[in-house]
Specification:
Blueprint: H1 3-11, E1 12-14, E2 22-25, E3 29-32, H2 34-47, E4 56-60, H3 70-85, E5 89-91, H4 98-106, E6 112-115, E7 129-132, H5 135-142, E8 147-150, E9 153-160, H6 169-180, E10 188-193, H7 202-211, E11 219-221, H8 226-234, E12 254-259, E13 266-268, E14 276-278, H9 279-282, E15 289-292, H10 300-310, E16 320-323, H11 328-337, H12 339-346, E17 349-350, E18 370-373, E19 389-392, H13 395-404, E20 432-433, E21 465-472, H14 479-482, H15 496-499, H16 511-518, E22 521-525, H17 537-544, E23 547-552, H18 557-565, E24 569-573, E25 587-590, H19 593-598, E26 603-608, E27 613-618, H20 623-631, H21 634-642
Parallel strand pairs: 3-4, 3-6, 4-5, 6-7, 9-10, 9-12, 10-11, 15-16, 15-18, 16-17, 18-19, 21-22, 22-23, 23-24
Antiparallel strand pairs: 1-2, 2-8, 5-20, 13-14, 21-25, 24-27, 25-26, 26-27
The protein binds alpha-methylisocitric acid and iron/sulfur cluster.
Length: about 650
């Protein structure tokens, strides 16, 4: 067996490990962050479970840390009180970005982790199966329920050679994105093997597993080996280590070979993470801003390399350099060993250890700016400045660029990039607050501020559906299009009515008003609809606007699950050319749809009433998913089962 099969089979609750078939797995650990967490805990409360049933569940506060009004602080208070009551640990704001802290302090080889954030696969660096999902799925897992997914096929990403000076783990994943695209990993686990692997430290592996999310992969995983053992020991967690490697004769569905020695610095150009060139090919683009940090690139190792490049030099006068270390541990170590001083002296603006610029919480670039960043997504508008272009690079490339003011190959900078992994990290868990003791939990109060509004629930599926196509969209529409999340909107993650005023506005600003006026309808999209974030808001807000179904060429994994969890039909074109036969404003009908779903029919007739034709569309649902669609979502289905 390969590592993926070993962990999945040890956690299998139902199904068989046959790629494409539905399986359910037991979840050992969960994580939430604050921007998806408020909804997840409201849903958890609605399920009526007193105490979490996982080995460890933790809530991070790392996204909404810009407190420009009471909203974020109110959400923090709600999360702190609701988690404490129900047996969940709380990582306070200031402790760091969820994936970085999970890697340092919580993740364990051989375990399963489900997180309400699409970059949860970061944990795969430690040899665990770590999957991103919608908040509702995480709420179910916290309550002891299994996580259902389509069994992935396993890709062997075989690494040989060794990264050359100035070439980074980020360049490995950018190269994979260049080769495979943002759809290349759909339905797959990227499992890393080969002799090159042992040359990569855990933070470097984490950069790769983190950004595997941009391939659309279910997750990415490294084995648990000597490198893992040394990292856990240095974190004071030697007892958490177990060895876990693929069998010699392990079988994989596909193999991709990467010679680490042959890689060069890479860059993803605006506005997609797979729009990758070598830094040399991209040329000396003039740069206005450089942002270093995010869950992809903010480890101690990353920051030390940045400090080495900046030491004794000054940031280019035309560049604003922003640095956000990934965790309190990292920041604390940098402050102790003087590296922070080197950054500050070079002219860096040091930000809180949080998601910050990556999710548009501050540091929006100027009009038409070029912003070079170390995070994982450069989707249109995500930085908060629509006219800006975001370029994704490694920490080394970012630091070199900050000095010259033009996109720069870090191999040209004279600096010692040989940073050793520390024998012991400065660990201190005093910002991870344990839950209220079980015997006191009943009396613990949950504090809800006025910004926390109830979440919408779908109605049971009607016998027939009718409405018009409210918006026709292209391929690769992201959740940042569906439910944008800049600093003005993130504070409203627990306020769906307010968010609904901005749904799909980056595609068409008139959409929210038109959807409201029409009293609902359908969406039409191309391939890979809903890629990117795990945010359930990208389903909850359309639900609130009474969207009954999405007609698309294909869907991204997490978003499709979120639609079904909320009772919205994900209909796929059988023939992609049928997409061209539909236009915005066409009236469509799905006659007898309820009965068809009940009988397990996978081809649903969709009538175009405006143009007078009918096409068959694929609605490939498992029995459990059919239950959700019929009941009007997972919460309704659970309520029915408990009746
Ligand atoms: C992101 O990187 O897009 C986010 C913000 O972390 C999201 C979660 C969210 O939308 O709250 C994600 O990746 O799932
Ligand atoms: Fe936070 Fe950005 Fe990572 Fe999302 S991708 S978890 S916003 S740092």
């Amino acid at each position: 067996m390969n590592v993926t099969q070993k962990i999945l089979s040890a956690h299998l609750v139902s199904g068989e490990l046959i790629p494409g078939s539905e399986i359910a797995i037991r979840i050992d650990q969960t994580l939430t962050q604050d921007s998806t967490g408020t909804m997840a805990y409201l849903q958890f409360e609605a399920m009526g479970v007193d105490r979490v049933k996982t080995e460890k569940s933790i809530a991070y506060i790392d996204h909404n840390t810009l407190q420009t009004g009471f909203e974020n602080a109110d959400d923090h208070k709600y999360i702190a009180t609701v988690t404490g009551k129900h047996g969940i640990y709380l990582s306070k704001p200031g402790n760091g970005i969820c994936h970085q802290v999970q890697l340092e302090r919580i993740g364990k080889p051989g375990k399963t982790l489900l997180g309400s954030d699409s970059h949860t696969p970061t944990g795969g660096a430690l040899g665990m199966i770590a999957i991103g999902a919608g908040g509702l799925d995480v709420a179910v897992a916290m309550g002891g329920g299994a996580y259902y997914l389509s069994c992935p096929s396993v890709v062997n990403v075989r690494l040989t050679g060794q990264l050359q000076r100035g070439v980074a783990a980020k360049d490995v994943i950018l190269e994979l994105l260049r080769r495979l695209s943002v759809k290349g990993g759909v339905g797959k686990v990227m499992e890393y093997t080969g002799p090159g692997m042992s040359t990569l430290s855990i933070p470097e592996r984490a950069t790769i597993t983190n950004m595997g999310a941009e391939l659309g992969a279910t997750t990415s995983v490294f084995p648990s080996d000597d490198v893992t053992a040394a990292f856990l020991k240095a974190q004071g967690r030697a007892e958490d280590f177990i060895p876990l490697t693929a069998d010699e004769d392990a079988i994989y569905e596909e193999t991709v070979e990467i010679d680490l020695s042959a890689l060069v610095p890479m860059v993803a150009l605006p506005h997609m993470p797979d729009n990758v060139r070598t830094v040399e090919e991209a040329g000396q683009i003039k740069v206005d801003q450089v942002c270093i940090g995010s869950c992809t690139n903010s480890s101690y190792l990353d920051m030390m390399r940045v400090a080495a490049i900046l030491k004794g030099r000054t940031v280019h006068p035309d560049v604003s350099l922003v640095i956000a270390p990934g965790s309190r541990q990292v920041l604390s170590m940098l402050s102790k060993n003087g590296a922070l001083h080197d950054m500050i002296e070079a002219g860096a603006r040091i930000c809180e250890t949080a998601c910050g610029f990556c999710i548009g919480m501050g540091q929006s670039p100027s009009t038409n700016a070029v912003s070079v960043r170390t995070n994982n997504r450069n989707f249109f508008g995500r930085s908060g400045t629509k006219s800006a272009g975001i370029y994704l690079v490694s920490c080394e490339t970012a630091a070199a660029t900050a000095l010259t003011g033009v996109l720069t190959d870090p191999r040209t900078v004279d600096a010692n990039l040989n940073v050793a992994m520390p024998e012991s990290f400065l660990y201190n868990d005093n910002l991870i607050i344990p839950p209220v003791a079980e015997d006191k939990a009943a009396d613990a109060e949950v504090v809800r501020g006025p910004n926390i509004k109830p979440f919408p629930k779908a109605d049971a599926l009607a016998d027939s559906l009718q409405g018009s196509v409210l918006l026709k969209m292209e391929d690769n529409i992201t959740t940042d299009h569906i439910m944008p999340s800049d600093s003005s909107l993130l504070p409203f993650r627990s306020n769906i009515p307010k968010l609904s005023e901005h749904c799909l506005a980056p595609v068409d600003p008139t959409f929210p008003a038109r959807a409201k006026e029409a009293g609902g309808g359908f969406l039409l999209a191309g391939q890979n609809y809903g890629q990117g974030s795990s945010r359930e808001h990208a389903a909850l807000v359309p639900l609130y606007l009474k969207i009954r179904g999405v007609l698309a060429k294909s869907f991204a994994r997490i978003h499709r699950a979120n639609l079904i969890n909320n009772g919205i039909l994900p209909l796929e074109f059988v023939s992609e050319t049928d997409y061209d036969r539909f236009d915005q404003t066409d009236a469509i009908a799905l006659p007898g749809v309820r009965q068809l779903v009940e009988s397990g029919e996978t081809l649903i007739p969709v009538e175009n009433l405006t143009k007078g034709f009918t096409v068959l569309m694929k609605l490939d649902l498992t029995e459990r998913q059919r239950g959700m669609i019929l009941a009007g979502g997972l919460i309704n289905m659970i309520a029915q089962q408990n009746r």
